[in-house]
Amino acid sequence: MSPEEWTYLMVLLISIPIGFLFKKAGPGLKRWGAAAVGLGLTLFTCGPHTLHSLVTILGTWALIQAQPCSCHALALAWTFSYLLFFRALSLLGLPTPTPFTNAVQLLLTLKLVSLASEVQELHLAQRKEMASGFSKGPSLGLLPDVPSLMETLSYSYCYVGIMTGPFFRYRTYLDWLEQPFPGAVPSLRPLLRRAWPAPLFGLLFLLSSHLFPLEAVREDAFYARPLPVRLFYMIPVFFAFRMRFYVAWIAAECGCIAAGFGAYPVAAKARAGGGPTLQCPPPSSLEKAAALEYDYETIRNIDCYRTDFCVRVREGMRYWNMTVQWWLAQYIYKSAPTSSYVLRSAWTMLLSAYWHGLHPGYYLSFLTIPLCLAAEGRLESALRWRLSPGGQQAWDWAHWFLKMRAYDYMCMGFVLLSMGDTLRYWASIYFCIHVLALMALGLGLALGGGGPSRRKAASQATSLAPEKLREE
Fold first, then answer.
1. 3-class SS of residue 331
2. How far apart are CA 429 and CA 433, in angstroms?
């Protein structure tokens, strides 16, 4: 592990006992105490580069105040433009920010764009109420008022997920501050249930990264090895990559759980990132609060089992970095300048790559995903429905195997980063996933795949596959 990785781990572990301290505190102590801890961590790890986050916050707040009815698009343009400036600092001869500054800036971008969207929704709802002449009462997920500058700063620097996620909306943050009877919200048992696999994943990460170091792929000697060895090597590299993030995101979720952050009654049917989807009245007494069943789906960032064993590429995206996936779906995918699913996915993956950074490997990897989505959708809708139940089960297993190999392949671009290293590795295994995807897409088109009824039927059938795999 690098020094930066040790620092991230320490920050994540420290967040857990801090969370227990804040859980039963009042709204004021939660707001300003959590912000003070987050700002302290930012100053400690980022130093003077903390100024970048402050400039981004002030710029977004100014846009919200100036144009509340259109601040979402303006905030998106501002924060993404600042990311470009932020990453070009070394080219401009300015001090290069630390990796921690980059992590803070990434999460802050998501939070500020979401905040602007929530303010815009509030403003539009208020205008609609004024036009209709009557008030409907509080709506699900709507803010009570526009946050002040200090409230925006407290949300932005809240220590929860400040460097690693999970992403959360301002509405989720407010619900935590105003949580009724926080002592009735369970923390310890949900935390232990969530944390138990993390040590195992950590050991698997250390073992796999030691036995199959990534740096070997950058050496000339690697390409003298036989093709089966080169082809196999991407599997343990992606395995180590997954284990590393599983540990980080589970620890980050545990920090939230310790504080009771993101806890909602199960009846609210909360979604990762978005929060409750059903109105659930707050309990009126401690006894009623204690009788409720709670979950932490709002801050759930990874579903390890489904990430590994879901069948389709599309499903794999859904269960990985779940709160960020919600953000991308809500604020990028839905506003894409096209109605085509594949083209919308390509637009979303392009902006996701840009959000991650400017390294060519990000773009090579992320922009391979739409090709895989198109290929699996066309071929599945053309062939799967023709098979017997046993044949469909065999299809799902083969589909799962190829999905994992596709993610192994794309991961190499994500970790190698440079165009030269990525293309060199892909070329050494003959761009096999690109070739297979193009062949599958061509076969699916030739067989007439992609009809709405067939696509819907195939999608419904395959959506049951994770449960089949679990039973097996």
1. helix
2. 9
Query: What are all long-range contacts of 59-63, with beta carbons under 8 Å and residues at least 24 apart?
Result: 60/112, 60/115, 60/116, 60/152, 61/149, 61/152, 63/116
d(CA 74, CA 195): 39
By C-alpha distance, which of 109, 101, 2, 107 is closest to 45? 101
C-beta separation of 373 from 342 below 8 A: yes
Q: What are phi and psi of 296, to 5 degrees?
A: -120, 35
Q: Tokens 């759930």 belong to which residue?
A: 300
**Which pLDDT belongs to residue 423?**
97
Asked whether residue 456 is domain-assigned, the answer is no
The HSE-up count of residue 201 (CA atoms within 13 Å, CB side) is 19
Q: Is 70 helix (H, G, I), strand (E, B) or coil?
A: coil
- Give 199-235 pLDDT, tens digit per residue: 999 999 999 999 999 999 999 999 999 999 999 999 9
Tokens found for residue 95: 């001090």
Answer yes or no: do 225 and 104 share one domain.
Answer: no
Over residues 22-35, the pLDDT tens digits come to: 999 999 999 999 99
Residues 6+ positions from 196 with CB-CB distance below 8 Å: none
Closest-CA residue to 252 (of 377, 141, 161, 119): 161
> Do 347 and 411 lie in a common domain?
yes
Asked which of 146, 180, 214 is the last residue of a domain, the reply is: 180
Instruction: Give the count of domains, the chain.
Output: 2
pLDDT per position as a tens digit, 301-332: 999 999 999 999 999 999 999 999 999 999 99
| Whether residue 337 sits in one domain with residue 217 | yes
How far is 395 from 405, CA to CA, in rounded Å? 15
> Which residues are paired to 302 by β-bridges?
320
Q: Decide which of 145, 180, 215 is a domain's last residue.
A: 180
Residues 93 and 232 in one domain: no
pLDDT over threshold 70, residue 245: yes
Same domain as 433, residue 332: yes
Claim to verify: residue 264 and residue 128 sit in the same structural domain: no
CA atoms within 13 A on the CB side of 340: 9
In a domain, 472, yes or no: no
In angstroms, the CA 70 to CA 281 distance is 31
For 148-167, letters b (16+ CB in 10 Å) and e give: eeebbbbbbbbbbbbbbbbb
Residues 390 and 422 in one domain: yes
Q: Is 235 in the same domain as 167?
A: no
Flag whether pLDDT at 44 surpasses 60: yes
* Residue 80 covered by a domain: yes
- Is the Cβ–Cβ distance between 111 and 167 less than 8 Å? yes
Query: Residue type for 445, please?
Result: L
Domain interval for residue 213: 187-276+289-448
Domain assignment of residue 462, yes or no: no
Q: Rounded distance, CA 85 to CA 467, Å?
A: 46
